[in-house]
Amino acid sequence: MNFSDLLNSVPTGLWLDGRSTPSESGRTFDVLNPATGEALAAVANATPADARAALDRATAVADEWAATPPRRRADVLRAAFDAVTARADDFALLMTLEMGKVLPESRGEVSYGAEFLRWFSEEAVRIGGRTATAPAGTGEIAVVKEPVGPCLAITPWNFPLAMGTRKIGPALAAGCTVIAKPAEDTPLTMLLLAQVFAEVGLPPGVLSVLPTLDAPAVVKELMDDDRLRKVSFTGSTGVGRILLAQAANNVLRTSMELGGSAPFLVFDDADLDKAVDGAMLAKMRNGGEACTAANRILVQNGIREAFTARLTERVAAMTAGPGWEESSAIGPIINAKQRGSIAALVDEAVAAGATVRTGGKQVDGAGFFYAPTVLDGIPDGARIRRDEIFGPVAAIVGFDTEEEGVAMANDTEYGLAAYFFTENVGRAQRVARRLQAGMVGVNRGVISDPAAPFGGIKQSGLGSEGGSEGIEEYLNTKYIALPAI
Ligand code: ADP
């Protein structure tokens, strides 16, 4: 399929009541191709009134969806998995066009993202409770699980499909209705997903999609309405704090997948080949635009130059170009603002004394490209050692002892992912336990798996997505006190 056939097949209205609908305001906004800076499509721009209409529907069908037999909910999710998989090429190209990642990575995201639908189709029929006899024998304790009710899912632009399915999958499996608010840079993938859900029989109103340029007003409208019962957010810690404060008003259930500053530790006893391969994945996959991306590459000084030289060689060989071209190893940055903030972090570090081993600059011409970069010798106070880079910049810092490496790794308000490389089993067990992170990769550069709980500690978030834990986020626990038998 060529670009325009695909774009013509994607709904561009709000997804309300099982179909594509204009905003009540009649307004639209352009979605840009970050590889060219040109508009791909004009998408309906939801208003607070549109948000109320979506919540009206999500509330009206909530009881019916909650009462739909789990096997039927599972069948819809499984059919959606099959349909997304059958249209993998369309979803992949669409993500490459609106988000920029290279096509092989988009295909990887389709498999990963679709898998949440299959995984949670399997979990839908395994929602259990428990019973027990009260210790004093005075009664029976029955514990049952019930869907929390209408949910709001707010997603970022870096994984346009997977961040949607990771929330929508468990919510639908649990019996909740969902209003999805995709990132303004990448709403098309979520709209196509909603259309696919409708095609496989998801009843109208159970899933709505509200693209908007005015996320704060649309989201506030929903969160101030006590019919909404849950918000699940993936995005920056700053916005997460705002949402947590707003959620307090109606005491909403919340799941927060926020920022990260993942340490990537390479010990002297690491296998250098594995460590360099792992760093390429943990740093450069998705153009470095991932909250799990290696943000601080901490290398024990005995191996530092060897590691840095090898990594530099690999990074320097990467060609930045449009994601749909086979020669491109890395796509553009999502937008001009984001590229500007990456450039500022690098420029400041270099001004303070860091060494550019490769890259270190924007790529001139159309689109928002930034050269894949390796920086070494980052001085202590540099902002790049604290802030989330969210771009293809490997920032290397040396350390001497295990103690010092772990202390540096934990010296952050974030606690999402951490990675380390060692061939020493004792060290592996010790360091895995001592790292303050919700997810730790041992000799691995990629850790996400739909069957595992994804989530952070400290200021990286609350709750888990995926795994058997993921569905709990969408279930309330009810205790029923029964008389003694
Ligand atoms: P990023 O910096 O990666 O774009 P953000 O946290 O700004 O991450 O955005 C993640 C999601 O949160 C997007 O869907 C965005 O539209 C939404 N968002 C941003 N600001 C707000 C806000 N004040 N209230 C609600 N949603 C918001």
UniProtKB/TrEMBL annotation:
Family: Belongs to the aldehyde dehydrogenase family.
Protein name per UniProt: NAD-dependent succinate-semialdehyde dehydrogenase
InterPro entries in the cross-refs: Ald_DH/histidinol_DH (IPR016161), Ald_DH_C (IPR016163), Ald_DH_N (IPR016162), Aldehyde_DH_dom (IPR015590), Aldehyde_DH_Superfamily (IPR050740)
Domain of life: Bacteria
Aldehyde dehydrogenase domain ranges (all copies): 23-480
Keywords of the record: Oxidoreductase
Lineage: Bacteria, Bacillati, Actinomycetota, Actinomycetes, Mycobacteriales
Molecular function per GO: succinate-semialdehyde dehydrogenase (NAD+) activity
GO BP annotation list: gamma-aminobutyric acid catabolic process
